[in-house]
Design brief:
With 128 residues, the protein is mostly helical. Helices cover 58% and strands 0% of the residues. Helix 5 packs across helix 6. The longest helix is centred in the last third of the chain and has 16 residues. It is globular and about 50 Å long.
Protein backbone atom coordinates (compact mmCIF):
# COMPACT_ATOMS: atom_id res chain seq x y z
CA UNK A 1 0.00 0.00 0.00
CA UNK A 2 1.53 3.30 -1.03
CA UNK A 3 -0.77 5.75 0.75
CA UNK A 4 -3.82 6.04 2.97
CA UNK A 5 -6.80 3.86 2.19
CA UNK A 6 -9.76 5.70 0.68
CA UNK A 7 -12.64 6.18 3.17
CA UNK A 8 -15.09 4.45 0.82
CA UNK A 9 -12.82 1.40 0.66
CA UNK A 10 -12.54 1.46 4.47
CA UNK A 11 -16.33 1.57 4.70
CA UNK A 12 -16.71 -1.35 2.28
CA UNK A 13 -14.25 -3.39 4.36
CA UNK A 14 -16.08 -2.54 7.58
CA UNK A 15 -19.30 -3.93 6.06
CA UNK A 16 -17.67 -7.10 4.70
CA UNK A 17 -19.85 -10.21 5.00
CA UNK A 18 -18.63 -13.26 6.93
CA UNK A 19 -19.87 -15.61 4.20
CA UNK A 20 -18.19 -13.84 1.25
CA UNK A 21 -17.23 -16.22 -1.56
CA UNK A 22 -13.76 -17.73 -1.70
CA UNK A 23 -11.29 -15.44 -3.44
CA UNK A 24 -13.35 -12.30 -2.99
CA UNK A 25 -10.85 -10.70 -0.59
CA UNK A 26 -8.01 -11.15 -3.08
CA UNK A 27 -10.14 -9.71 -5.88
CA UNK A 28 -11.26 -6.77 -3.73
CA UNK A 29 -7.69 -6.00 -2.69
CA UNK A 30 -6.46 -6.11 -6.29
CA UNK A 31 -9.27 -3.83 -7.48
CA UNK A 32 -8.56 -1.24 -4.77
CA UNK A 33 -4.74 -1.56 -4.74
CA UNK A 34 -4.44 -2.51 -1.08
CA UNK A 35 -2.65 -5.44 0.52
CA UNK A 36 -4.50 -8.34 2.09
CA UNK A 37 -2.67 -7.55 5.33
CA UNK A 38 -4.19 -4.05 5.33
CA UNK A 39 -7.61 -5.48 4.46
CA UNK A 40 -7.57 -7.93 7.36
CA UNK A 41 -6.21 -5.32 9.80
CA UNK A 42 -9.10 -2.96 8.93
CA UNK A 43 -11.62 -5.81 9.06
CA UNK A 44 -10.39 -6.88 12.50
CA UNK A 45 -10.65 -3.31 13.77
CA UNK A 46 -14.19 -2.99 12.39
CA UNK A 47 -15.31 -6.23 14.02
CA UNK A 48 -13.67 -5.37 17.31
CA UNK A 49 -14.71 -1.70 17.63
CA UNK A 50 -17.56 -1.27 15.14
CA UNK A 51 -17.75 -0.03 11.53
CA UNK A 52 -17.27 3.65 12.38
CA UNK A 53 -14.00 2.87 14.20
CA UNK A 54 -12.33 2.02 10.89
CA UNK A 55 -12.98 5.57 9.71
CA UNK A 56 -12.25 7.27 13.03
CA UNK A 57 -8.92 5.50 13.51
CA UNK A 58 -7.69 7.04 10.28
CA UNK A 59 -8.52 10.54 11.50
CA UNK A 60 -11.61 10.73 9.32
CA UNK A 61 -14.04 11.20 12.17
CA UNK A 62 -15.85 14.31 10.95
CA UNK A 63 -16.23 13.86 7.19
CA UNK A 64 -19.52 13.05 5.48
CA UNK A 65 -18.77 9.34 5.03
CA UNK A 66 -17.86 8.73 8.67
CA UNK A 67 -20.78 10.85 9.90
CA UNK A 68 -23.10 8.85 7.64
CA UNK A 69 -21.83 5.58 9.09
CA UNK A 70 -22.04 6.92 12.65
CA UNK A 71 -25.68 7.96 12.06
CA UNK A 72 -26.48 4.48 10.74
CA UNK A 73 -24.79 2.81 13.70
CA UNK A 74 -26.81 5.02 16.07
CA UNK A 75 -30.03 3.92 14.37
CA UNK A 76 -30.98 7.37 13.07
CA UNK A 77 -33.54 7.11 10.28
CA UNK A 78 -33.72 8.39 7.59
CA UNK A 79 -30.05 8.97 6.94
CA UNK A 80 -29.13 11.60 4.31
CA UNK A 81 -26.65 10.68 1.59
CA UNK A 82 -22.93 11.43 1.93
CA UNK A 83 -23.30 14.11 -0.76
CA UNK A 84 -26.10 15.81 1.19
CA UNK A 85 -24.00 15.75 4.34
CA UNK A 86 -21.08 17.29 2.43
CA UNK A 87 -23.34 20.13 1.21
CA UNK A 88 -24.60 20.69 4.76
CA UNK A 89 -21.03 20.82 6.10
CA UNK A 90 -19.95 23.30 3.42
CA UNK A 91 -22.98 25.52 4.10
CA UNK A 92 -22.18 25.47 7.83
CA UNK A 93 -18.57 26.39 7.12
CA UNK A 94 -17.04 23.26 8.63
CA UNK A 95 -15.81 21.89 5.28
CA UNK A 96 -14.39 23.45 2.17
CA UNK A 97 -14.44 22.80 -1.54
CA UNK A 98 -11.21 21.57 -3.03
CA UNK A 99 -11.03 23.35 -6.39
CA UNK A 100 -7.57 21.97 -7.17
CA UNK A 101 -8.99 18.48 -7.65
CA UNK A 102 -9.36 17.44 -11.25
CA UNK A 103 -12.87 16.77 -12.52
CA UNK A 104 -13.81 13.20 -13.30
CA UNK A 105 -13.22 11.86 -16.79
CA UNK A 106 -16.93 11.67 -17.83
CA UNK A 107 -17.34 15.34 -16.96
CA UNK A 108 -14.31 16.26 -19.05
CA UNK A 109 -15.63 14.25 -22.01
CA UNK A 110 -19.05 15.87 -21.74
CA UNK A 111 -17.50 19.33 -21.55
CA UNK A 112 -15.36 18.57 -24.61
CA UNK A 113 -18.52 17.75 -26.57
CA UNK A 114 -20.24 20.94 -25.39
CA UNK A 115 -17.21 23.05 -26.30
CA UNK A 116 -17.01 21.40 -29.72
CA UNK A 117 -20.65 22.24 -30.41
CA UNK A 118 -20.15 25.83 -29.29
CA UNK A 119 -17.03 26.13 -31.46
CA UNK A 120 -18.99 24.97 -34.53
CA UNK A 121 -21.24 27.95 -34.21
CA UNK A 122 -23.90 27.52 -31.61
CA UNK A 123 -25.90 25.10 -29.58
CA UNK A 124 -27.51 22.25 -31.46
CA UNK A 125 -30.58 20.61 -29.99
CA UNK A 126 -30.36 16.88 -29.82
CA UNK A 127 -33.58 15.02 -30.70
CA UNK A 128 -35.84 13.92 -27.96
Amino acid sequence: MSGPVDPRVRLAISQWLDDAPRGSVTTFCAEHSISRKTFYALLARARRDGPAAVLEASGLDCGPISVLEKMRSMGIEPVPSAASLARIFRAAGVARLEPKKKPRAPYRRAMAKVLAVIAVGGLIRYGG
